[in-house]
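Quick one: structure for this chain?
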Amino acid sequence: MTITVIGGAGYVGSVLCPMLSEQYDVRVIDTFWFWKNREDYLKLFKDASKVHLIECDIRDSENLHNHLIGSDTVINLACISNDISSDLDPKFTHDVSYNGVMNVIQSCERLYIKRLIQVSSGSVYGVKEKPVREDTYPEPITQYAVIKMEIDHYLQYLMKRGGYDITILRPATLYGRSPRQRLDLMLNIFADKVANNEPIVVHGGTQSRPSLHVKDISNAIMDMLFDERSFNQVYNISKEAMTVLEYAKIFEKMYGTEVIVEDVNDARSWRTDSEKMYRDLGIIHRTQLETGIKELVDDFKEHGVDRDYSVNMKVVKRLLCR
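Got it. Here's what it folds into:
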């Protein structure tokens, strides 16, 4: 059984792929833009013989197609992640996040790879006051979210056409420790501030945000990998849901950190209803928020963070200047 993970060296993939390799042969296709070298990534695996690293840009459709030959299952994590990175160069973002991902999907079609898990985003729903379910009409307000919605729509067309075992995941804002750490995710930013004895600055604060630990989304993918009940389904995937200020107040309570609220208009606000995943598959997200926060802060204090590679916008800027 060969599982190919596109974008497997990213924030989620660096947690997920070592887990997968304990049970399956894993093929990681990635550009490794966010690593100094591939050897450091390979150290994450207990048994390096169970993983095959392939440096490939998904915009290169022919090269990608050749590397997907022999795959039994494909998990796609690849895209230009987050709004601010996507907005740096809309054409580049569309080329990677839409054209590149469509290359993945179309190669799966041509190679008759039935099982595909696509990691989308809860941001496709846009600004919503009430908790959103999977059948809520998406109204994305950023390019990042629009592209995710467009990919979702094409995959839903394939689901209706039949012959595929597709699962679309729409995760909450992720947080937590990862070998490919990110400092541009809300709770990770807050933890970094605490670790460096700096105040937490909240922009607005009344916006709602669902959250989910990176380990929990990885475990969920593991659990649903070959669960036929998840085939041709869309799932919201989240755990906590509160306002940005409420999250900051948890850090304040745990560490005595100063919280500064700035009057900044950030329209992005939504809460996801993830009951369907539990109802259909029985999947429970087990990481407690305070536990995940403590692990993050402790890790940042002990090991620090490579700031050249942990902020997506910085890496994308370097790529665009090549």
